[in-house]
Design brief:
about 150 residues, mainly alpha, two-stranded antiparallel ribbon, 4 helices, elongated
Length: about 150
């Protein structure tokens, strides 16, 4: 495959993960926690990097754009790994969204459907959305790496 094909595939993968998360939220009614939202930003960034790399073509600074795309999805994978550990109780999460945290759930001026970061609201094959995001992000990192090596 060509560099542009790998970039397109990786960028579409990030866009697909982002749209899937939004679908779970808006169509499935599953409100995201704070760390779920953190995992979305790198995918939006990777999709934009892919768009710019394809639009700029040969002027996209060679291999810089694919490496930046890889970095973005690796950040999401890292947040997903951290989030998975919080969900499984391996380590404490941010106090603002974990079960033992200091967040005031009785406040009337905050979100009423706040989801705790240590709560698994959906899982498949024993893996939460954070775990699946981590695995998918690692696969996308390989695709970005293939683009960088072309």
């Amino acid at each position: 495959m060509t560099r542009n094909a790998w970039i397109a595939l990786a960028a579409l993968g990030s866009l697909g993960l982002l749209l899937t998360a939004l679908g779970f939220q808006h169509l499935g009614g599953l409100a995201p926690c704070q760390m779920c939202l953190w995992q979305r930003w790198p995918h939006a960034t990777a999709a934009l990097i892919g768009l710019f790399a394809l639009a700029l073509g040969r002027w996209s600074h060679g291999r810089v754009m694919p490496w930046l795309g890889m970095l973005a999805v690796l950040i999401s994978a890292g947040i997903g790994a951290y989030h998975t550990g919080v969900e499984r109780g391996w380590w404490a999460g941010p106090s603002s969204c974990s079960g033992g945290g200091g967040g005031d759930l009785l406040r009337l001026d905050g979100p009423l459907n706040m989801v705790k970061c240590d709560a698994v609201v959906w899982q498949m094959l024993g893996l939460s959305m954070a775990s699946w995001n981590m695995l998918a992000s690692l696969a996308l990192a390989v695709m970005w790496g293939m683009a960088a090596r072309r």
